[in-house]
Design a protein that fits this description.
five-stranded mixed beta sheet; mainly beta; globular; 40% strand; 164 residues; single chain
C-alpha cells in the first residue's frame, strides 16, 4: 500500500500532537471509569469492559510522564496491535490525515525533548504543527509490562480475557 493511501489518527496529549496508524485504531469513545488493577504500571488505570472484552485502560499523558492541564474534550482511543487491545485517554482528537511515510525526522531535537524516544518512530508535520508518529508495538510493551520486568504482567487485552 502506498504511503499516500495510508491514513493516521492525530490526537493531542498535553502540548504535543501524536499520530497512530489508522489500522491500529479500533474506535474512539467517551472516557469511562476503569476498575483498578493492583500492580499496574504507571499510567494504567485498570480494566474497562468493552462489549464483553476486558481492555487495559489508562491515560496516555501519565504513561509518557507528560503534564496535563484542564482538558475540555478528552477521548478514549482503543488501539489494537498483535491481537491485543488497549484503551488510552487522550486530551483531544484532531482528525485523520495521510501518513507521512518517508518524511519522518528520526533524529531531531523534538524527539529528545519528548523524553519518550522508545515509543516514537519519528517526527512529521501536520500543517505548521510537528507530530510524533507512534510505534504502537513499543506503546503496548510499555502499557502491558509489569514493574519493569520486561514481560507482560497479565494476559490482558487478549481474546482470552472474555467476560461471560
Amino acid at each position: 500500500m502506498s504511503d499516500y493511501a495510508r491514513r493516521q489518527l492525530l490526537f493531542e496529549v498535553g502540548d504535543y500532537l501524536f499520530a497512530a496508524d489508522a489500522g491500529e485504531v479500533l474506535e474512539i469513545l467517551e472516557p469511562v471509569s476503569a476498575t483498578p488493577v493492583p500492580g499496574a504500571v504507571a499510567g494504567v488505570d485498570g480494566l474497562v469492559n468493552l462489549r464483553g472484552k476486558l481492555i487495559v485502560s489508562g491515560h496516555f499523558a501519565r504513561l509518557l510522564g507528560l503534564k496535563r492541564e484542564g482538558v475540555d474534550e478528552p477521548a478514549l482511543v482503543v488501539f489494537e496491535h498483535g491481537g491485543r487491545s488497549v484503551a488510552l485517554q487522550v486530551d483531544g482528537v484532531v482528525g485523520m490525515a495521510p501518513a507521512s511515510g518517508g518524511e519522518l525526522d528520526v533524529g531531531g531535537d523534538l524527539l529528545a525533548a519528548l523524553g519518550a524516544r522508545d515509543v516514537v518512530r519519528g517526527v512529521g508535520r501536520f500543517g505548521s504543527r510537528p507530530y510524533f508518529q507512534l510505534d504502537m508495538a513499543a506503546v503496548f510493551a510499555r502499557v502491558l509490562e509489569r514493574d519493569g520486568e520486561g514481560g507482560p504482567g497479565l494476559e490482558l487485552g487478549s481474546t482470552e480475557g472474555q467476560v461471560a
